[in-house]
Automatic annotation (TrEMBL):
It comes from Rubroshorea leprosula. Belongs to the PP2C family. Coiled coil: none annotated. It holds the Pfam family PP2C. InterPro entries: PP2C, PP2C_BS, PPM-type-like_dom_sf, PPM-type_phosphatase-like_dom. Keywords: Hydrolase, Magnesium, Manganese, Metal-binding, Protein phosphatase. One of its GO terms (cellular component) is nucleus. Gene3D superfamilies: PPM-type phosphatase domain. This is protein-serine/threonine phosphatase. It comes from the Eukaryota. Residues 13-276 form the PPM-type phosphatase domain. Its cofactor is Mn(2+); Mg(2+).
Amino acid sequence: MQNHDVDFIPIVRSGACADIGFRTTMEDVYLCVDNFMHHYGLKNFTNGPSAFYGVFDGHGGKHAADFVCSHLPRFIVENEDFPVEIERVVASAFQQTDTAFAEACQLDAALASGTTVLAALVVGRLLVVANAGDCRAVLCRRGKAIEMSRDHKPNCNQERERIEASGGYVNDGYLNGQLNVARALGDWHMEGLKRVGGGPLSAEPELMTRKLTEEDEFLIIGCDGLWDVFRSENAVNFARRRLQEHNDPVMCSKDLVDEALKRRSGDNLSVVVVCFQPQAPPNLVAPRSRVHRSFSAEGLRELQSFLDGVGN
């Protein structure tokens, strides 16, 4: 298997679905670009795919989500160090996008809003996930769910410590009593949350990187509306069964959204499914045990004695 993994090149196929759910407005945005370099007019000099996927869960309006969806990929791909220093480039692009949105809001106060951001890039065999907020990415590796992001909630110990060190506080699960996320882009209009160079509300993404292997089947990216009603393992099992039926990431993303609605998710829903193989996930057959268990003659006599006793 190890030699095969060295030669493994993912073949990406993606699909996405969004639904307003039970909300009165739709503030989610998503982006699927299976050929990232070509999309932005650059030559793909990687061995294998270059792809970008993102989910942007807006709050206080949709302007921040739209802005980040439009600008973040461009800041990444236009950096001269992409894709060689991919993690540093992606982290820098989050900050650049946040600063650019702050400047846009100064020119037009009507844009004031915020958004959580989860971006996943596939460059060759490398999967890079950058997250700021409570969207989540989960990788399916041979049927097992591997979380590729951490939900940034104010009550999390790490986030609470960072918030308090930045002069903020957590009240009843809300950052400064205002937001139920600890990281997001935008929200420059909210008093005491952000300042140049820091603040309780961070736009810095947390990055996780993994080399894809033949065992990696697909990735699910969803806003918190999905994860309110699905556990990570539950979502992977559900999506895997659907892909075994139809092998279509577009249909699979819709299946996940429809099921979340049936489970009464109370939020907007956005889901992206990215497959890394051309074929459907295989059936997993548990290997038979090679341990041969048998009774000794003494054991059989004891068992017979016990059964005789029961019979009497």
